[in-house]
Amino acid sequence: MATDIFIGGGGADYSTQQFLKLGYANRHGLIAGATGTGKTVTLQILAEGFSKAGVPVFLADVKGDLSGLAKAGTETHKLHGAFTDRAETIGFANYGYEAFPVSFWDIFGEQGHPVRTTVSEMGPLLLARLLELTEAQEGVINIAFRLADEEGLPLLDLKDLQALLVWIGENAKDLSLRYGNVSSSSIGAIQRRLLVIENQGGTGLFGEPALALSDLMRTTAEGRGQINILAADKLMAAPGLYATFLLWLLSELFEELPEVGDPEKPKLVFFFDEAHLLFDDAPKALVDKVEQVARLIRSKGVGVYFITQNPADIPEDILGQLGNRIQHALRAFTAKDRKELRMAAETYRENPAFETEVAIREVGVGEAVTSMLQKKGVPGVVERTLIRPPSSQLGPITTAERDAFLKQSEMALKYQKPIDRKSAYEILKTRAETAAKEAAAAEEAAEEAAPQLREFNAARRYSGKGVSRSTSRSTKKRQPDSLSGALTSAVVKELSGTTGRRLVRGILGSLFKGR
């Protein structure tokens, strides 16, 4: 049977052991504190604990430090003495060094296996968030996805979306009659935003093979949960891309996983570092949906843990759902800081032994104010807790060591090589080429028929049997006079036969694939 996760020692002498109960670990959590107060080590020891309990973990490594989970700590480390002293102080009798099963992932494919999804799977809502679109521009994106769904145009990578937007722009007049106004300025703005994403390296995120969630939820033959580490140090240069990708992953988990009620332990624990990026400048509609996902996803057996500098970074409605809390030190240099510190302290169940506000301000590095859910999901009394030392290596592994892990991983064969199958770009290109050939053939036929037509008209005028105004010029006008004209004809013809078939999309707009 899975055991609870040892966090550290609490009480006046740190001898009262503090645990995160696995049965309530899917009720989400918060790790907060100022820079340099120990949040990363806390995340590391939680990942270790979940892995030991057989719970897979997904986390973003924004500093590059967490790769050390793949390697055991050593007695030669400069903090070895401090670690063993701390373990003795908190009663961590079986403390030792060990490595944990790790898979490395990277959107850019440099420090881990490539992580991909398709444009279609991400959906219009999250894509609009990624591109920072206005309401009008988001409307055009919705039209693009609607057309792609109805017309069987797979949107797999960015070039598919770019080609579809060109197609929409060339046929805007006809499409506006059905879907509403489609302005060329909105299409141009979207195309420019797509170029920005390309320049940020986001092209690699979109394509196939797309990430299968089952590959994030593996356990080893020994029953340990796989720790999936997303290299995010470079990704943080594009915060919108970082936040949108993690939001997409969260929405995929929500849509795909079945209901499990209250499991003995979570099916997956998801750590969202730099959580403020998720909510910065996010429209209320998106924040509301994130709140809904956070509230409901626990019944799917997924625990979500937000890591941020200040609890005030998290919207209040979401903060209220985070039952397990580890609060490292907060500094109060300004009136605003003091107000936020007081508000953070008021969210904890009081301990008569000390003032929570003072404790949050005074705890040292590696120490925190903690409150874990207890029996029946009741918040535990707040405690000053000395966080236990990690068993894995503190700090990153070398590039050579990381490369060795990647070569040995079973995920390498599955994800390393991209697949470029026929999709919207190729389909639209074929249509355009066919339309151009048909237009050229029609024009050539008209030119060949022109001398005979002039002769025939001249004969009719001479015999007085009628006058025809037809000329080679007017004949040409009846033919598609450009690629755009040919495409317009094809679009109108196809839309008139549309049966309204659409793919079902979930709460955050991603494809609902069923179970």
Provide an overview of this structure.
By secondary structure, the protein is an alpha/beta fold. About 45% of the residues lie in helices and about 10% in strands. The chain contains 18 helices and 12 strands. The chain has helices spanning about 40-50, 80-90, 120-130, 135-150, 160-170, 170-180, 185-200, 240-255, 275-280, 285-295, 315-320, 335-345, 355-360, 400-410, 410-415, 425-465, 470-475, 485-495, and strands at about 5-10, 15-20, 30, 55-60, 100-105, 115, 225-230, 270, 300-310, 325, 365-370, 385. A 12-stranded mixed β-sheet has the order 2-1-12-11-10-3-9-8-4-7-5-6, sandwiched between helices. A hairpin with a 5-residue loop joins strand 1 (about 5-10) and strand 2. Helix 3 packs antiparallel against helix 4, helix 3 packs across helix 8 (about 240-255) and helix 5 (about 160-170) packs antiparallel against helix 7. The chain is elongated, with a radius of gyration of 30 Å. It starts with a strand and ends in a 19-residue tail after the last helix. The model is unreliable at about 465-485 and about 490-500 (pLDDT under 50).
